[in-house]
């Protein structure tokens, strides 16, 4: 996932397709395939009741995300307030698992640390984390809760801002955040003549654009709408393009977590009920960006 986020005042556009995956309500006994590619058996009756769940802290659902936590995914840098797309999704999943808002605890997990191998100090992490085969070797992913296109942002009036296709960005100096699928998308789809500049975090990436140290930056489309509306109004969205193979975001869990089948069932139920789509429309709405080919 891609991830360049700051603070937002708007509820942006319905961007691209809804997260793909099973459309059932999660109540069948059939096996499902999690987004990491491995078959996950559907939980037996009662296995997902609150008192049966294997949790980091008994009786409490521990959810991880990075800090600062930016809109449109979180508002006021406070994941616990239930405002913002991912905060709302997390609480909706918690509700399906039998947890009220007071039963949910948030913990800070740096983006790159979330999918590192080893034990986790959270039950699941939600942080625009793209599902990739490499990451899925080290952690579990739920079914996708969102599918994000990529977007190119450039300062208004720059040569990069006038690009009408991906080929027009080939010679541009591009910036991306380390560890994101935006970097992979740049290399696979734009194929720039020079290596993109890679920055440690979202703030550094945005500062590089403002300081004209790069011609353009690549982020996921919801973040692009936020940045150009609130954080870098002197910039414009050049256009959007699909990440190779799609860019599905999933809830991240410890590898082979006993909780994964239950989280999958919760996400599937939220999709079937239309909850994920309603939350996407509420928090990720706005005008469509031109498509770059």
Please describe the topology of this protein.
Elements: E1 32-33, E2 39-40, E3 61-65, H1 85-96, E4 104-108, H2 111-114, E5 124-125, H3 133-136, E6 139-147, E7 150-155, E8 174-177, H4 181-190, E9 197-199, H5 202-210, E10 216-220, H6 221-231, E11 235-241, E12 248-254, H7 260-272, H8 275-283
Parallel strand pairs: 3-4, 3-5, 8-9, 8-10
Antiparallel strand pairs: 1-2, 6-12, 7-10, 7-11
What structural keywords apply?
293 residues; alpha/beta; D-Maltodextrin-Binding Protein, domain 2; 5-stranded mixed sheet; 3-stranded parallel sheet; 8 helices
Q: Give the averaged pLDDT, no decimals.
A: 86
Secondary structure: helix percent: 10-25%
**Class of the largest domain, according to the CATH hierarchy?**
Alpha Beta
Describe the strand arrangement of the main beta sheet, using strand numbers. Answer: 9-8-10-7-11
What is the CATH topology of the largest domain?
A: D-Maltodextrin-Binding Protein, domain 2
CATH level-four homologous superfamily name of the largest domain: Periplasmic binding protein-like II
What's the short story on this structure?
The protein is an alpha/beta fold and 293 residues long. 25% of the residues lie in helices and 19% in strands. It folds into 2 domains: 32-147 and 251-283, 3-Layer(aba) Sandwich (D-Maltodextrin-Binding Protein, domain 2); 150-241, D-Maltodextrin-Binding Protein, domain 2 (3-Layer(aba) Sandwich), CATH 3.40.190.10.
């Amino acid at each position: 996932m891609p991830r360049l986020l700051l603070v937002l005042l708007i509820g942006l556009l319905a961007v691209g397709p809804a997260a793909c995956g099973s459309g059932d309500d999660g109540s069948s006994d059939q096996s499902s395939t999690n987004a990491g590619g491995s078959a996950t058996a559907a939980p037996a009756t009662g296995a997902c009741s609150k008192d049966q769940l294997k949790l980091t802290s008994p009786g409490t659902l521990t959810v991880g995300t990075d800090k600062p936590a930016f809109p449109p995914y979180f508002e006021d840098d406070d994941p616990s307030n239930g405002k913002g797309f991912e905060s709302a999704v997390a609480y909706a999943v918690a509700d399906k698992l039998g947890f009220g808002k007071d039963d949910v605890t948030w913990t800070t997990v740096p983006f790159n640390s979330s999918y590192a191998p080893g034990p986790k100090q959270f039950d699941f992490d939600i942080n625009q984390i793209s599902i990739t085969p490499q990451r899925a070797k080290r952690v579990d992913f739920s079914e996708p809760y969102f599918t994000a296109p990529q977007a190119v942002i450039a300062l208004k009036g720059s040569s990069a801002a006038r690009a009408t296709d991906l080929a027009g960005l080939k010679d541009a100096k591009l910036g991306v955040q380390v560890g994101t699928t935006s970097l992979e998308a740049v290399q696979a789809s734009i194929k720039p003549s020079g290596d993109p500049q890679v920055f440690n975090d979202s703030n550094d990436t945005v500062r590089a654009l403002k300081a004209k140290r790069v011609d353009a930056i690549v982020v996921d489309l919801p973040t692009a709408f936020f940045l150009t509306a609130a954080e870098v109004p002197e910039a414009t969205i050049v256009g959007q393009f699909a990440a190779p193979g799609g860019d599905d975001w999933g809830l991240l869990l410890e590898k082979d977590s006993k909780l994964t089948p239950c989280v999958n069932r919760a996400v599937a139920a939220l999709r079937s009920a239309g909850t994920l789509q309603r939350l996407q429309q509420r928090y990720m709405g706005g005008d469509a960006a031109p498509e770059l080919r």
